[in-house]
Each structure stands twice: as structure tokens, then as C-alpha cells.
Amino acid sequence: MAENSSPRFWWVVASKPxxxxxxxxxxxxxxxxxxxxxxxxxxxxxxSQTHIKVMCKGDVVVAYQAYEHNILGLILLRKGKYHKTxxxxxxxxxNPKKFVKLNAVVKLYDVREIxxxxxxxxxxxxxxxxxxxxxxxxxxxxxxxxxxxxxxxDQRHEIATFLARSNKMPPTPxxxxxxxxxxxxxxxxxxxxxxxxxxxxxxxxxERYGNRCCLCSIDDPSLLVAxxxxxxxxxxxxxxxxxxxxxxxxLHDSLFGKGFMTLAPSNYAAIISRGKLSERARNQVKxxxxxxxxxxxxxxxxxxxxxxxxxxxxx
Length: 315
What we know:
This protein is an alpha+beta fold. Helices cover about 30% and strands about 20% of the residues. It has eleven helices and ten strands. The protein has helices at about 25-30, 45-50, 110, 115-120, 120-125, 140-150, 155-165, 190-210, 250-255, 280-285, 300-310, and strands at about 10-15, 35, 60-65, 70-75, 90-105, 135, 225-230, 245-250, 260-265, 270. The protein has a six-stranded mixed sheet. Strands 7-8 form a two-stranded antiparallel sheet. The chain has a two-stranded antiparallel ribbon with strand order 9-10. The protein is elongated, with a radius of gyration of 22 Å. The model is unreliable at about 1-5 and about 170-195 (pLDDT under 50).
């Protein structure tokens, strides 16, 4: 069955563990029969039945756990158009091969704080929501995704890959929109200065690195960051020096900026922190990190890398 041409996003509730419906059951063993998802009572509500009938293959499910009040992950629908009940309850199929289980759950309280949440996230609209499946608008999905990414910076690459598979990557929000916290008090002047100075540095870095992260294959400019080895605030004399700028994807830029990763001054090999990252996290970082790609000109300065290793990197 063809995927829906118009993106749809769904907030799907699993009831408390005592009832036998917990999202952890799916994430622990996605190949089991948990992919046929349903539930007592709520799944039979008129709202849920109406939504299930228009669900399509490739739609995104936000997995919400009732009573714990947390978002646990994201999943794609495997099929669609569920016009008939199957057995005792209406159900829909989750794809056991395409999902993201969040390392840090997102709390309902934070979702309620999203601007226009009640208008864009159906579940939030009601004080005591009745049902299992609730609709999320494109705007609501974009806001939820921003919140998930902010609270799970180490999974941004995984989430981006998941969204690429779903073909439902939300548009980049307009930075000057009055709708939402993109322009806040005291930040407007900073953003203007950033465009004048950092914007030129970024464009030069994109050209030198061929619009591609120096440590992985991501080549979408919207996912790339021109970061300073010696931070903007740490060395004014080095801000515009191209050898103090590296082009990385958002994930590697975050790891580098927070000191979870550095580059060896001798051969630019990626060095991942042992003291601050678990072995599991280290392996995850290694799995998405390739050999350093030299830029066309002005590779990272060794003096700057030595400074980064001494002052930023966390062994």
C-alpha cells in the first residue's frame, strides 16, 4: 500500500503496566507480536477509531506511556487503512525495524509548555483525554521534535536517520517567526551579529569542506555547523582564522563542543572521551564517526587542537 502523501503524526497512548500495555514491551522485543498494537476501552473510543481508519504506512507514532506521563520513543507505521476491527479491538501495525527509543524520556509537563500545544497536539487539549490515538498537526510535530532533540542531543543523528526513512522531515522553522520562542528578549541583537560575522565564516567553511561533515557522511547544509576549535569567546584573535574552524554535523559539533570528543593534533584522528561516556555511548559515537576528511585548504591548526585537548576535552 502506498504511503500517505500528506504527513500524519499520531500520539499513541499505552496504558499502565498492570494492564499489560507498556511501550517498553515493544522496544524490548519489537519483532514480537507487540507490533499489532491495541488496547481495551480507549482503542474503541470514537476518536481513536476515526483516527485509525486514516492511518497510513510511514506515518510517525509518538509513543506515550500513561500514568508515567512520558514520551518513550518514535515509531513508523508498517501498514495503513485499518477499516475493520481485528478480533476484540481495533489495532494497527508498528514497524519493528524503524523506531527510535529515547535515552531520555520527554515529560508531558514539558510538552504542555510548548507554544500553542492545545491547538496542535490533540492529547494535550483535554484535561482527561479518552482514547488511545490522538492527532498531532505538522506544527505540533515540529515542536515535539525540537523538544525531543533538545533533551536527547546524543541521538540527533539517529533521529535524523529515522526521519529520512519516514520521508517526513519537518521544515526548518523560520527564525524570525513571532509564533514561538525563536526570538526572545535580549537575543535579537546577538542573532543579528551572528549573521554578519559567523555567517561569513560558515559559508567559507562549507566551501572548504565541500558541504560535508568532516567526521561523517552528512552533507545537508541545514544539519552542518561551522564550529570554532578555540571558542568564539575564548580567543577573539582566532575567530576569523579558517584553521580554527571545523565543519561538523550537529551531533559531532555537540560532542566536540562539550569535550566528549577531540581531534589528535598529529593526524586529526577522532578521540572519544572514556571518563565521561559509557562504553555503550562510546560505541554509538564510533558507529557514526568516520576518518577525518581534510578540507580543500586550511586544515585545523595544531596549536588550536592542542588548546582544545587541554582546555575542553574531558579524558
